Amino acid sequence: MDTPTPAEPTPDDALAAVAALRRLADRVEDDAVERALADGWTWLRIAEALGVTKQAVHKKHARRLKEQ
Amino acid sequence: MFERFTADARRVVQQAMKVEAKALGSKTVEAEHLLLALSATIGVSRDDLITALDAETAASLDAVGVTMRPPPPPSRAAQPRIGASAKIALVRALESALARGDKEIRAEHVALGVLAADVGTVPRALAIAGLDRKALADRL
Fold first, then answer.
1. Are B88 and B29 in contact, with CB atoms under 8 Å apart?
2. A7 or B4, which is more confident?
3. Residue B88 — very low, low, confident or very high, per pLDDT cuts 50/70/90?
4. pLDDT in the model for residue A68
């Protein structure tokens, strides 16, 4: 069963949607990485699951989570 | 870039970086974070601005059929970098001071810089909240 696709958005709405999707993706990533770490995942495994390098995930999250 | 900013204008930029962008878990400081830091300058409550920004995100996601809403911001966020929309707003702040013949960049110039954008998150959020961007700028 296909879900109905929304009417094609205007360029203005579509561009704003891309910006909103990036914000959404960042939030989902922050939350998922924290929960994976709490579950004992290694940075290497998190990186592989995200499809990015270990360096990338480390740079993005390790410093953030070490602060405070 | 900040030599000509008054203490007040610097406080706005600092608050956008160290408080607003960080609280929302954003990797970059954007125009909307400057807007939140300028709540008192433009005379709109911060709560109303947050509601407007959330409504903009929801409307933009709905436009492409996404019903998921962002999870709450992370408890720990890195110090954000300056983002593209904030850079544009700060350049426009300088331009609005020049246009008025003002030598210093004050908080209201930063507000004019943020309110000058006619595309992007800020104008969309203000429109959704029923706030007239030009009327807000005219009061400054």
1. no
2. B4
3. very high
4. 44
B124 and A16 within 8 Å at the Cβ level: the answer is: yes
Question: Model-level pTM?
Answer: 0.91
Q: Using the 8-state DSSP alphabet, how is residue B81 labeled? A: E
Please give the Cα distance from B123 to A40 (Å, whole number). Answer: 43
Domains of chain B and any CATH numbers: 2-139 (1.10.1780.10)
* Alpha carbon of B44: minimum distance to chain A alpha carbons (Å): 23
Per this entry, what is the length of chain B?
140
Task: Give the ipTM of the model, two decimals please.
Answer: 0.89
Q: CA B7 to CA B81: how far, in whole Å? A: 21
Helix extents (H) in chain A: 11-38, 43-50, 54-57, 63-66
Q: Does B60 touch chain A (CB under 8 A)?
A: yes
Chain B residues within an 8 Å CB radius of A26: 25-27
